[in-house]
């Protein structure tokens, strides 16, 4: 009885490892010396230069079918990432320029608010109302906020 259980569990373990090896995918290619290489990722992350290898049948099939006049399909993932990085850099430059414009507008707005607060403060000195001291205090606070 123990031998039966051992055989069944050993068979299940071997079958599970075979299934996991084929599910993950095995890739093959020839290196610069002409030696066949096998891995779980394509060669240099370039699917166009790699073939899929079936562990059970020992057959290799190309991952990418070559297309005439299709240079983009032969780009490696690293080249695609570099292109994407360049696009992101361009977008960041545009955003930086927009942010500089917004900062300039904000600076002009702050300067105008400062001038207005200073004019209000000067005007409050000449007021002849009951709440003159409260207005002077309020305008001094506006000057402090807007002119610093």
Automatic annotation (TrEMBL):
It comes from the Bacteria. Residues 1-23 form the signal peptide. It holds the Pfam family DUF4124. Residues 50-110 are annotated as: Disordered. Residues 17-68 form the DUF4124 domain. InterPro entries: DUF4124. Residues 86-110 have a biased composition (Basic and acidic residues). Residues 50-63, 71-84 have a biased composition (Polar residues). Keywords: Signal. This is DUF4124 domain-containing protein. It comes from Snodgrassella communis.
């Amino acid at each position: 009885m123990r031998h039966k259980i051992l055989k069944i569990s050993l068979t299940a373990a071997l079958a599970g490892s075979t299934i996991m090896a084929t599910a993950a995918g095995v890739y093959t290619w020839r290196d610069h010396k002409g030696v066949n290489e096998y891995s779980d990722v394509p060669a240099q992350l370039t699917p166009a230069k790699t073939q899929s290898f079936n562990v059970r049948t020992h057959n290799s099939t190309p991952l990418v079918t070559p297309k005439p006049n299709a240079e983009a399909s032969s780009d490696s993932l690293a080249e695609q990432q570099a292109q994407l990085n360049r696009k992101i850099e361009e977008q960041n430059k545009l955003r930086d320029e927009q942010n500089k414009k917004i900062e300039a507008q904000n600076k002009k707005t702050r300067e105008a608010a400062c001038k207005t607060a200073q004019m209000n403060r000067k005007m409050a000195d000449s007021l002849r109302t009951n709440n003159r001291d409260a207005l002077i205090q309020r305008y001094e606070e506006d000057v402090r906020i807007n002119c610093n």
